[in-house]
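Two records follow; treat each independently.
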Amino acid sequence: MNDDVTQYINKTQPWQIDVCEKLRAMIGETIPGVEERLQYGKPHYLKNGHYAAVIAVAKAKVSFMVFNATDIPEVKGFLRAMGTGERKTVDIKEGDNVDYDALAGILEKTTANL
């Protein structure tokens, strides 16, 4: 666990801290040996030196983005494509019921070849 990432998370709202800590734990379980660092002002997660995921906190949401997701289909109301579709993002708002197992499955697929 990176202290800078912990500080980033702890500056957010209580519900966002909860979501971020659950995402952080899910990432650690899904990618053994993942590198966690604060980069571009946000927590980034790398596998073998390659970007795997990013957590970004905004005023009313927590965004979880995965890289290498060209082959992962969009899911309306859940998973949206960013740019060319190589990145996919889930926006989590206060009170949302988050399927962390589904997110772990997506992350597993997107990091399998890293």
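The next record belongs to a different protein.
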Amino acid sequence: MKHQVRTIPGKLVDFDYNRYRLPTFVMQFKPSVYQDGDCFYAVLSFEEEHDVSGLGTSPEDALIDWNDKVCEMLALSGPLRTSFSTK
């Protein structure tokens, strides 16, 4: 199966993860942060099928939103959880 690659708008932000107290998943995976105008995006994967992304008005807000989405994803049951446990 061919993976669908997604393009993130904006430019990559040089973000110092050690400067802030951020959630555990953010510190462990360090998703990339992009800025497009007043919006910031935190993205771990560019493949739409496995994409986890967060949105905010600052890099920190985007990273916290990203962390919340990871937590929500891990709390899901059924096929999604099964697909992660088999990899």
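Discussion point: The helical segments are 24-29, 59-75, 79-85. How would you locate this feature using only the token line?
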